[in-house]
Amino acid sequence: MGKLDGRVAFITGAARGQGRSHAVRLASEGADIIAVDLLEQIESVPYPLATPEDLAQTVKEVEALGRGIVAVKADVRERSQLKAALDQGLERFGRLDFVLANAGICPWKDLTLAGGFVDGTDVDLIGVLNTVAVSLPHLKAGASIVLTGSTAGLMKGTTEVLGNTGGVGYAWAKRTIFQYTETFALQLAPHSVRLNAVHPTNTNTHLLQNQEIYKAFRPDLENPTREDAEIAFPALQAMPIPYIEPSDVSDLVLFLVSDDSKYITGQNFRVDAGGMLKTDAAPGL
Ligand SMILES: NC(=O)c1ccc[n+]([C@@H]2O[C@H](COP(=O)([O-])OP(=O)(O)OC[C@H]3O[C@@H](n4cnc5c(N)ncnc54)[C@H](O)[C@@H]3O)[C@@H](O)[C@H]2O)c1
User: Fold this and answer.
1) Taking the CB of the first residue and of the last residue of the chain, which one, N or C, has fewer CB atoms within 10 A?
2) Is 113 a domain residue?
3) What's the pTM value of the predicted model, to 2 decimals?
4) Is 163 helix (H, G, I), strand (E, B) or coil?
5) CB 74, CB 82: distance < 8 Å
């Protein structure tokens, strides 16, 4: 018996990283999965996004657990694509219980408004709103929605001084998720549908492990390596670690979708090894 037997989860950005980890964790507790990912590059993103092979690997890992998975190429920026993907999953599984709006990009190096800021906010905010919007008609009492923010959005100064519009767009989108969660959870509560957000610190995925992020952490070096960056990564946490693993976030996500958290809603949870305790929160948070 798993904690999620007979339930179905819709997960965006599920081809790799945290999304794949969540898919496998929920499947290991008995859930079937509807997985979407872009499977294309966005020009302003300075690291490769997921490939069809990545999504195939998620399918393989979920099926190895004996669970069903419908995996579809879809862009969270396009509500019609998300709806079509979800409809495919609903056709096979017949219900929807959990929604994980996890897909995200960090267009860190992009200095243009039309690239970095627009792409960052389109994927990291509009993509989240779209994911929730297409899911709502199918959610019943007991359903749980979990959004992925970032501590980068919660820290004071990150929408002002990051030095590039891509980074600022990312932080602003993630910060807005905090406020959206509190505001919208109150509207959903009378329907017994829950909405929470998780805000990870540095997480060991492609979004962190790339040259532009290494440069951001080591501006003193022209071509910093991963080893150079790992000396600086612990600055974001209070506990002495460079980053958390995707499975550390999946632990919290599983709790937040399961009945173990049945009266927890409207909350913003940090998985940050104490990092936010060292810094001021953004105004209004
Ligand atoms: N890695 C970190 O340090 C970190 C820290 C805090 C928050 N986050 C957030 O965690 C979430 C998961 O990211 P990750 O760390 O697993 O990185 P990742 O890059 O490995 O995974 C993100 C996934 O989202 C997909 N994606 C991107 N744009 C999409 C779109 N328009 N439509 C559909 N799918 C799209 C990518 O292809 C990729 O598979 C993101 O929201 C990210 O902002 C990451």
Assistant:
1) N
2) yes
3) 0.98
4) coil
5) yes
